[in-house]
Amino acid sequence: MDTSQSQIQHYKNEFSAFEKNGASKSPAWVHDIRKAAIEIFEKEGFPTKKNEAWRFTNITPILHSQFRYSSAPSVPKVEKKSIEQLLLKETAQHLLVFVNGHFSKELSAVGKLPDGVLLTNLAEAVVSHQKIARRYLGKIAKTEQSVFSALNTAFTYDGLFVYVPRGVQIAEPIHALYLSSGAGEQVYVSAIRNLVIAEEESSLMIMENFLSLEENKNFTNAVTEIEAKKKSRVELVKVQHESAASFHYENVHVHQEETSNVALFSLAAGSALARNDMQVIIDGEAAECNLNGLYIVTGTQVVDHHTLMHHIHPNCPSHELFKGILDQDSRAIFNGRVYVEPEAQKTDSKQTNRNLLLSDNATVNTKPELEIFADDVKCTHGAAVGGLNDQMVFYLKSRGIGEETAKGMLVVGFAAEVTGKISNEKFRQYVDAVVIDYLQTKLGMKDLPEIVHS
Amino acid sequence: MIEIKNLHAGIAGKEILKGIDLKVNAGEIHAIMGPNGSGKSTLAQVLAGHPSYEVTGGSVIYDGKDLLEMEAEERSQAGVFLAFQYPVEIPGVSNSYFLKAGLNEIRKANGQEPLDSMQFLKLLREKMKLVEMADSFIYRPVNEGFSGGEKKRNEILQMAVLEPKLAILDETDSGLDIDALKIVAGGVNKLKSSDNAFIVVTHYQRLLNYIVPDFVHVLVNGKIVKSGGKELALELEAEGYDQIKEDAKVTA
Fold it and tell me: Which residue of A lies nearest to B44 if distances are taken between CA atoms?
């Protein structure tokens, strides 16, 4: 039996154990979703480099560890004070904490919410809010499109659940903190499953914050489903700073109705191998979607973003800006697919991927994939890979600033352009602080300026 | 202060400066005029140490040192300043951080203590009055979203803060309306002293109504073809560069 086959068997065994223990209390319809997904997973198997979507991303390192799904009682205890410095500063926030994929009631703190808002964990929601959960869970994500999504779905148990009723705005940001914690030799996988439903004219802001409490190896395999109804506004900012030994996969699926506005931001800094899939179905007229991201990698890290903007209806703007800072032997993959259906006239789509290489050994594979079947559209794309801008370096040096300091300022400036796209100020400050911390601790840059935005 | 002898330089294998001779003493203002493509900006960039330009011959002695051997930041630390024709935007970095970093590196190189934030802010506010810039520019990213005039004023502000010995102004008047031009020129005039010198590169005479040069040099096709007093600028304004180009051809 080869590695891939034995891993499929391993996850099947995990699945049997999972269905028997804690997860067995879920309603029957959840068991059905899981069962269908494990069958897809078994049939498809893990992708190889022959699979176009995984051509540049070798996932075999994930197959070399026997990751286990932790049952609720085996989840390590996390002290409240160890998460204090991870919170958003100086602001009220609805905090939901997950440890190895399991909701922690003790660590979480949800404040007062407007009437009708449901903000809880998925394991609770499938029982208490069964009607809503059942209507959407697994309906937005396309399990069959990615084997990792199928694997996540097979282990659907816990994650963030948000339902915002019609016309309701949640003023304070929602902070979902996903902690990975390892104990000794045993390595764990977290199957995080998030479900976000924004009804007509509602709005909310979410920060998904993934990190490891120790330098342990862990595997996060997450799926997030977002349903944005007519005129709703959703901002989702993801911060991924897991340990350098960890593996990370997340598939964010968005379904947008007319005149809705969805903005996703992804900061990918941690993990040995991190893959972010973002798939947006713009399924209504004059809906707007913005996907932005920043990746900062060094060592032998590999980071991969695959995006899809699927335009079905007319008059929808969509914008993407993904920027990367790569040092040492790291590698980044960006694949931006824009699919414009014949009906989607006056689509205004712009996609940009810019990469800053700080080392001769860093590699970028960037690929726009535009499939346009409408004739009256504006679709642009651009990709750039290069070093620091000579003219900018010269400008700084001409003011007495030495090479190293100049480099630091320009790297910060490079990052600032894209973090400036985050509209929630507290989220932006949080992301900026993680960026500076990473540049200093992981890329060894010194005396960096504080990021300012115009 | 600076002596340029038979300077030859170019970019990407193309020679642009074809033997420049120029001597500037402390307390003097020299204007370099000339038609487009004559090499004015190249001279400014070469003196500031732009790495894309290649010096193929001649020498530049600044303050007794070989300027051409120095890195761009060393030149700045030694008191050379270039006000850019096209100031560069540095997103994400505040104007004050940028200027403080520059000033303190220059101070360090000259054996002075760095200024702390309070001291620097006080100095910056004083200098900002000189170019009539609003306080908000302190915290805005360097040149990002600035209008053309604001960028040029920001260049003069940088000059005021860094207090160079030799300031080279590369087409600082281009793209300025008359009010901005007056502010920029006023800033230069207030900074002028018997210890520093200015090289003002310009296409038009207009700026020289406000910054009055001691000497005017005309650069054509990589060479200084004529030098004179401030009246030369007025002559050029009246006659244009065509006559001088013709004369240059004859002498060549």
Answer: A398
